[in-house]
C-alpha cells in the first residue's frame, strides 16, 4: 500500500503505489528525477501529469514556486520521492503563496505532514533559505507582480540560468541586503546573458518598457541595474557575484553575525570564490558589516 498523507485537496505521496490513488479529478505532479522517469507513462493513461523538478540541494525558490502554481490549480497528487527534501521545498512554497503562512509556519506544517510517511524529517538550511527568499519577494512585490517578474525572468532564461538567479537572490536575502538590491536582482537578466551588459540593458529595457519596469521595482532599483550596466556594481552585489552564485563551488551561505559561512560543494572552486570575496570585505548591510567569509 502507498505511503501518503492528505491535506485539504492535495495528497503528498512518498512515491510507490500511485496506482491506488489515481483519480481523473487529480493532477499528478512529479518533482524528482526518479519518479519522473518511473511514472512517465501515466500521461498516456489519460491523467493530467506535470514534471516540475525542484533542486533541494540549493535554495531553489524558482522550482518551488512553479510547483506551488501547479498545486494552486486544483486537487493534486504531489509525488515527493524517497527523500522528504523535495516536498520540504515544494509544499511550503504553496502554503506561503496561497495560505499566507510564514516560512516557519509553512515548514512546521509540512514537517508534521511528512513525518507521517517518512521516518526522519529534517530541514536543510538551503531549503529554509530558498523559502525565506520566496516569502520576501512575495511581500516586496505582491503576488501578482511576483508572477510578472518571474515570467519575464524565465523569458530571458533568468539571465544565465535559474540557479544563478535563485542563488543570487537567496544570498542577498541571507546577507540582509536593502530592498533596492533585492528588487534590482529580480531584473538582473537586464544586464546578464549573451552580450555586453550595457547593450543588453538598452535592448531589454526598451523591449520591456522602462515605465513598466519602474512600476514593478521602482526607479531606485532600476538605477542600480543601470549602474551595473555601466560597470559600477554596488559593493554588496559585487561581493555576491564574487562568490559565484549558481556555480559548483558553494551550495549555500549562512550569516552568523559579522561572518558569512559558506557550505562548500567543490573545494577548489569554493576556495577560489571565497578568496575573491574576501578582497571586497568589509561589506555594509542594514544589520551591520560582514567582515569575514569562511567555510563551515
Could you describe the 3D structure shown?
- With 296 residues, this protein is an alpha/beta fold.
- The chain folds into two domains: 135 residues, Alpha-Beta Complex (Protein-Tyrosine Phosphatase, Chain A); 137 residues, no CATH class.
- The protein is built from twelve helices and eight strands.
- The strands form two sheets. It has a five-stranded mixed sheet with strand order 1-2-5-3-4. A three-stranded mixed sheet has the order 6-7-8.
- α2 crosses α3 and α3 packs parallel to α5.
- The model has no long low-confidence stretch (mean pLDDT 97).
Q: What do the pLDDT scores average to?
A: 97
Number of helices: 12
Overall 3D shape: globular
The tally of beta strands, per DSSP, is 8
Major sheet description: 5 strands, mixed
Number of domains: 2
Radius of gyration: 20 Å
- Encode the helix/strand succession as letters: EEEHEHEHHHHHHHHHEEHE
Low-confidence stretches: none
Q: Give the distance, in angstroms, between the N- and C-terminal Cα atoms.
A: 41 Å
The class by helix and strand makeup works out as: alpha/beta
Helix content: 40-55%
Amino acid at each position: 500500500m502507498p505511503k501518503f498523507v492528505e491535506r485539504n485537496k492535495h495528497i503528498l505521496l512518498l512515491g510507490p503505489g500511485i496506482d491506488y490513488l489515481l483519480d481523473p479529478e487529480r493532477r499528478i505532479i512529479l518533482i524528482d528525477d526518479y519518479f519522473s522517469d518511473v511514472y512517465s507513462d501515466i500521461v498516456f493513461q489519460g491523467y493530467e501529469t506535470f514534471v516540475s523538478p525542484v533542486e533541494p540541494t540549493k535554495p531553489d525558490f524558482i522550482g518551488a514556486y512553479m510547483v506551488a502554481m501547479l498545486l494552486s490549480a486544483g486537487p493534486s497528487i504531489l509525488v515527493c520521492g524517497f527523500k522528504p527534501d523535495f516536498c520540504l521545498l515544494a509544499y511550503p512554497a504553496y502554503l506561503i503563496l496561497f495560505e499566507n503562512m510564514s516560512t516557519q509556519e509553512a515548514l512546521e506544517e509540512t514537517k508534521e505532514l511528512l513525518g507521517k510517511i517518512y521516518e526522519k524529517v529534517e530541514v536543510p538550511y538551503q531549503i529554509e533559505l530558498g523559502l525565506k527568499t520566496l516569502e520576501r519577494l512575495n511581500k516586496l512585490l505582491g503576488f501578482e507582480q511576483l508572477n510578472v517578474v518571474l515570467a519575464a525572468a524565465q523569458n530571458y532564461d533568468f539571465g544565465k540560468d535559474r540557479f544563478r538567479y535563485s542563488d543570487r537572490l537567496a544570498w542577498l536575502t541571507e546577507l540582509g541586503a536593502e530592498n533596492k538590491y533585492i528588487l534590482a536582482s529580480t531584473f538582473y537578466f537586464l544586464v546578464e546573458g549573451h552580450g555586453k551588459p550595457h547593450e543588453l540593458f538598452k535592448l531589454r529595457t526598451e523591449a520591456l518598457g522602462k515605465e513598466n519596469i519602474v512600476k514593478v521595482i521602482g526607479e531606485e532599483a532600476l538605477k542600480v541595474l543601470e549602474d551595473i550596466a555601466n560597470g559600477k556594481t554596488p559593493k554588496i552585489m559585487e561581493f555576491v557575484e564574487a562568490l559565484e552564485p549558481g556555480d559548483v563551488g558553494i551550495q549555500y551561505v549562512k550569516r552568523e553575525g559579522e561572518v558569512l559561512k559558506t557550505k562548500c560543494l567543490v573545494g577548489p572552486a569554493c576556495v577560489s570564490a571565497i578568496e575573491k570575496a574576501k578582497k571586497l570585505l568589509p561589506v555594509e548591510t542594514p544589520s551591520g558589516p560582514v567582515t569575514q567569509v569562511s567555510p563551515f
